[in-house]
Amino acid sequence: MGTDACEILFFVKLPLAGKVKTRLARDLGAGRAAKLYEAFAEDQLATLTSTGIPVRVCCVPMGTLADYEMWLGNQYSFEWQLGFDLGARMLAAFDGAFRRGRKRVVLTGSDAPMMQRETVLEAFDALQHRDAVFSPSPDGGYSLAGYRASGLVRDVFLEMPWSTSGVFEETCRRLNEHDASYAVLQETPDVDTLQELGRLVQSAVFGNSPMTSRDNAPRSFSLLEHWGF
């Protein structure tokens, strides 16, 4: 199955001060938090693009789609996120991809700058044999979720306790209830708080694996170094 049957959905916001990374903003200030989010998103999108799989940028309704295109480039497809909460928006994005004829679809947000190209490719490989695939995050959620067209379980998006430590566990429980098969890949940390940012910097300083390499997020680490982190 070629890449034309696959698609990456990239959830993103415009990097406006006071509108993104509000928990980080309490410690860094709204301006710096927005600049860091901008770098996170650009680093992660570069990783996704490097897979060679088509990327569709799913935009929070802020500004215009032209604003997103001006920021991220016109080589991508852009659409608005539609829905009353995160689960509804994710479900709508998956539904849209499958209506376009995609067979394997992976969705990720824009706050996991250390996401690896290999992790994304492994996710698509897993969907050849599994209904779903995840890269969990250390906070109890997940940084990446993927489904194949024949295996989408709508219940995992509905009335989910989003932004809590039980999201991934509850997702797996519901998949098990539906006898859906799924694969779990290595963790990919996301960064929402100063503590998580500190762990990201420490892992890059002391880690010795590709997962912790600064090369995964050059824009982000350049900015952090400029600020003295």
UniProtKB/TrEMBL annotation:
<dbReference type="Pfam" id="PF09837">
    <property type="entry name" value="DUF2064"/>
</dbReference>
<dbReference type="InterPro" id="IPR029044">
    <property type="entry name" value="Nucleotide-diphossugar_trans"/>
</dbReference>
<protein>
    <recommendedName>
        <fullName>Glycosyltransferase</fullName>
    </recommendedName>
</protein>
<dbReference type="InterPro" id="IPR018641">
    <property type="entry name" value="Trfase_1_rSAM/seldom-assoc"/>
</dbReference>
